[in-house]
Design brief:
The protein is mostly helical. The protein is 87% helix and 0% strand. It contains 19 helices and no strands.
Length: 525
């Protein structure tokens, strides 16, 4: 029994660390690559690149939840030794995703024909936007096929390999972007839209390489599942994949609408250059959201194992404590964005983007904080198989987000989109999600608000106060100074988390672990 408990405790830690390793590398590269691409492309072409990527990104919903189904069935069949069944599921998924990939390309071609009617794109950039959309559609098709092999790796709990593939993809993509933009620098000045095409082609090349790597590593990880093709195209296997993934697909679709509608609304109602100001802010919050996902991604299999062992109390603890721990990690980032966002954007992307993008960043950072409990709730419900109840919640958020954003964009401009996202997210995360968690998990709402939300805010408040003091009295003159200042204040966040964020029993446990480790090292020496 204790051995099983150790396995349950160790696996998510390993997976989270693997996910964070990939995240850290991606974040560092994106930090340096973002300003470089913006400087090379210019404000409007960069906005077109971000806009088309957001628009075509919806084609990823053709996944239909199948990747999650592949992960689930591969894990189940492998543990049961049913390798032929696992192979059949893989083959059926590959057929579905290949068909979906071709459909994505066809739809992208169709969208490209009407892009100038959907958005305010300058005439000289119309052709570049059309070509970019088609290339992005091909990219989505390749990514869908890659999802089959990625699902196999996830089903075998090889998040370390998935992170490695992601890192390799980032390396190839970044190198291709830099080479393309540097070699064709003269062309960029003559044909502004050429840079957008080159960057998108670099992304396509990276996707092809990632597909090859994922296929190779999945084959080496689970050879038995990639040898047989029995009943590969049976209706039974197709039904298994689609029936399991349908609800997850609806959730993904609604989340995508709520999350990605901003750029499309801005591109439709405002000059396309405004997309750039908004995307700068979302680029930062997305990195923090990826860090959050590195934790929540490991929750569903953990919760499923607890449910199988009838550990209802443990599931409730995962929901409350998972939100609290994630908040303690994310809140220093949120506080820094809110208090010092304008200064950071000015130093990072340029003074001309600092004020407006900084204001957008502050609003989206509050929404990011609200996302913590929202995402934890969603992943816990996925693990319990109770995620169907999240569909109306996410549907309400998507409708509210779009409706409020349209009204506010027309009234106050690009900031209206950020306000629309924030208002919808706060209501759904703090009211609707908590109510649903109470219904399913029988949690105490008062305990949840106090321990999962209020306690982390109190813990990080000293960090926020010191950060504000530094911003007022010691403005950063460059990025090196800015990061030095943040590094100097991080101990305040750690101390606040230790004193106010953790329970006394947790502090005692951690102290006990450290003492045992020190004692063990002492005996070894």
């Amino acid at each position: 029994m204790s051995g099983a408990a150790k396995k349950i405790d160790a696996r998510p830690v390993r997976n989270v660390l693997s996910n964070w390793g990939g995240f850290l590398f991606t974040a560092v590269v994106s930090f340096f690559l973002g300003p470089y691409i913006l400087a090379k492309l210019g404000t409007t072409p960069y906005g077109i690149w971000q806009l088309t990527a957001s628009l075509v990104g919806y084609l990823g919903l053709l996944d239909l939840g199948v990747r999650g189904a592949v992960t689930k069935f591969i894990a189940t069949y492998h543990s049961a030794g049913k390798h032929e069944s696992a192979s059949d599921i893989k083959s059926a998924a590959l057929l579905l995703f290949t068909a979906a990939g071709f459909l994505a390309v066809i739809v992208a071609v169709g969208i490209s024909l009407f892009v100038d009617q959907l958005f305010s794109i300058p005439e000289d950039l119309k052709e570049a936007a059309q070509i970019t959309i088609v290339i992005s559609g091909i990219n989505i098709g390749i990514a869908l096929i890659t999802g089959v092999y990625g699902g196999i790796l996830a089903g075998r709990h090889r998040f370390d390999l998935l992170s490695l593939i992601n890192v390799m993809g980032v390396i190839f993509r970044s190198a291709a972007v830099i080479i393309a933009l540097e070699v064709d620098d003269g062309i960029l000045t003559q044909k502004p839209g050429q840079g957008v095409i080159l960057v998108t082609l670099a992304q396509l090349l990276s996707s092809v390489i990632q597909l090859m790597l994922t296929q190779l590593l999945s084959r080496n990880t689970y050879r038995e599942a990639l040898t047989s093709t029995q009943r590969a195209f049976s209706a039974e296997n197709m039904k298994k994949l689609l029936s399991f993934g349908l609800i997850s697909s609806v959730i993904q679709a609604l989340a995508a609408i709520a999350h990605n509608s901003a750029l499309i609304l801005i591109g439709s109602l405002l000059p396309v250059a405004m997309v750039t100001y908004y995307s700068i802010a979302t680029m930062l919050t997305e990195q923090a959201r990826t860090l959050m996902s590195g934790i929540s991604y490991t929750i569903p299999p953990l919760v499923a194992a607890m449910e199988g062992a009838q550990q209802s109390d443990s599931v409730r603890r995962i929901f409350v404590d998972g939100t609290r721990y994630t908040s303690l990690i994310i809140l220093p980032i949120v506080a820094t964005f809110i208090i010092r966002g304008e200064s950071f954007v000015s130093l990072w992307m340029g003074v001309e983007y600092g004020k407006l993008s900084g204001q957008i960043l502050s609003l989206l950072s509050v929404a990011l904080w609200a996302m913590i409990g929202y995402q934890t709730c969603t992943t816990v419900m996925l693990g319990l198989g109770k995620h169907k109840g999240m569909v109306p919640i996410m549907g309400f958020e998507a409708l509210m987000n779009i409706g409020v954003s349209i009204m506010l964009i027309q009234a106050i401009g690009v900031l209206g989109s950020a306000w629309g996202s924030l208002i919808a997210r706060l209501f759904v995360a703090l009211v609707m999600c908590v109510a649903y968690a109470r219904k399913v998990l029988h949690i105490s709402i008062g305990e949840y608000y106090m321990h999962a939300l209020v306690r982390p805010i109190i813990a990080i408040a000293p960090f926020a106060a010191v950060s504000y003091g530094i911003e007022i009295t010691w403005p950063a003159s460059n990025l090196a100074v800015f990061f030095l200042q943040v590094t100097l204040v991080i101990p305040v966040a750690i101390l606040g988390s230790w004193i106010f964020g953790l329970k006394s029993s947790e502090r005692n446990n951690y102290i006990g672990v450290v003492r045992r480790r020190v004692s063990a090292y002492g005996r070894a020496w």
